[in-house]
Amino acid sequence: MAYIDLMSPIHKSTQRDYLARVNDPEFPKAKAAKLAKQWAFDYWDGDRRINYGGYRYMPGRWAPVGQAMIDHYAIKPGDKILDIGCGKGFQLYELTQLLPGVEVYGIDVSAYAIENAKEEIKARLQVGSATALPWPDKTFDFVFSLNALHNLHNYDLDKALREMERVGKNNKYLCVESYRTEEEKANLLYWQVTCEAFCTPEEWEWWFKQTGYTGDHSFIYFE
User: Fold this and answer.
1) Beta partners for 199?
2) Phi, psi of 43, deg, nearest 5
3) CA distance readout (Å), 202 to 32, 196, 221
4) Edge-to-edge strand order for the sheet containing 103-108?
5) Is the pLDDT of residue 87 over 90?
6) Within 10 Å of residue 129's Cβ, how many Cβ atoms?
7) Residue 83: CB partners within 8 Å, gap ≥ 6?
8) Quick check: pTM over 0.90?
9) What is the largest CA-CA distance in the chain?
10) What is the mean pLDDT of residues 112-132?
11) How far apart are CA 9 and CA 149, in angstroms?
């Protein structure tokens, strides 16, 4: 298990006004969170003050992460890849463009996301829970989860990490939100609308040991 930062370039490309988000008069934080946690239109394509504000495919945006995965984990044509919390499948689609021949699968709790997924891979995506993955042990050559598992309560996070470990062979990677300072903690609280597991890096390390997760990881910080 190693710390491998594949997500910072995308995360840091977005400018965030933390105070404006938490103090918005039309979508105060509690209202925004309630709407976001329906995992439907408002979360993906509604007002930016709620969450993404329109989660659309942008050619090449996810390519750097995909290429980093391919290079680091020596992914090759024919490999089976699973994305836990795949959303609309943009990262999986990018992988198929970078490396034709990979066999991609995705699962997400959001029926809206799957219904509005990238058409080219939509048939490989399904609605479901990270806590009960519908595949046999060691099905996938590479399993990853980007900015999803921190949205689970502790009792489900435990199950999800164990499931991720179960369906993967050797190569696994996840990225979750975290904080190192009180400033980063405040920014995370101001910005997030779906996070349930507010953990320091040391606490995440405890989770990995507790559940037997042996894959790699990295953290998103709100600096």
Assistant:
1) none
2) -65, -45
3) 29, 17, 14
4) 125-127, 103-108, 80-84, 140-146, 168-177, 216-220
5) yes
6) 16
7) 89, 91, 92, 104, 105, 106, 107, 144, 145, 146
8) yes
9) 51
10) 98
11) 20
Domains annotated for the chain, with CATH where assigned, are: 8-220 (3.40.50.150)
Name the pLDDT band for 20 (thresholds 50, 70, 90).
confident
The residues pairing with 217 across neighbouring beta strands, listed in sequence order, are 3, 174
* 118, 146, 147 from 41: Cα distances, Å: 16, 20, 19
- Helix spans in 37-181 (H): 41-45, 63-73, 90-98, 111-115, 154-167
- Lookup: tokens for 176: 């979750």
pLDDT confidence of residue 11: 78
Q: Sorting pLDDT into bands at 50, 70 and 90, what band is 85?
A: very high
Contact partners, residue 30, CB within 8 Å, separation at least 6 = none
What CA–CA distance (Å, rounded) separates 67 from 203? 29
Rounded to the nearest angstrom, the gap between the alpha carbon of residue 19 and the centroid of all alpha carbons in its chain is 24
Cα four-point dihedral sign 128, 133, 134, 135: positive
What's the pLDDT tens digit per position in 166-195? Answer: 999 999 999 999 999 999 999 999 999 999
**Strand residue runs (E) in the chain:** 80-84, 103-108, 125-127, 140-146, 168-177, 216-220
Burial class (CB within 10 angstroms; exposed 0-12, middle 13-18, buried 19+) of 76: exposed
Residues 157, 198: contact at Cβ < 8 Å?
no
What value does the mean pLDDT of the chain take?
Answer: 96
